[in-house]
Give the backbone structure.
Amino acid sequence: MKMKRLFVLVILAGMVLTVQAQQSMRFRGSDGWGVTTITGARYEQLFDNFNLQTVVASVVRVDTATIIRDMGVAVRLIVTLDGTKENIPVHLGPMWFALNQDVNFPAKEKVEIRGYRANFDGTSFIMPVEIRSKNRIFRFRDDDGNPFWGIHRPR
């Protein structure tokens, strides 16, 4: 009888540890930004490819921030929307992705941003599809709205 109880306890403990491991699972190298990870899915669920808008803005600065707890650091473009005094962050993606895109936005530069304006925990931000600046175009998502940092590329 004691052996059965011990066996059941070992099985239950194994199940609890398995569930906990699955809840914190991330794609290797995604730093929590993978589309199918728990936190990445929550972030990506905010994006709406059918309600994109285009805004013109002036660059205030480029900085970094943690967008949602348990996600890796993101690179953000802080802009002031034309015709307003409103500063709004534009999420350029995880730091490891944005730093490899040769993205450069000097202060006061005019940019045209096509993307989705989202809200999370009372904070408004833009999830860009593309940003146009002078004669440059930076793309962050494909035509279906999938982020380029989540697309598998063979090595």
Summary: Residues 44 and 63 are 21 Å apart (CA to CA). The chain is about 20% helix and 35% strand. Confidence is low (pLDDT under 50) at residues 15-29.
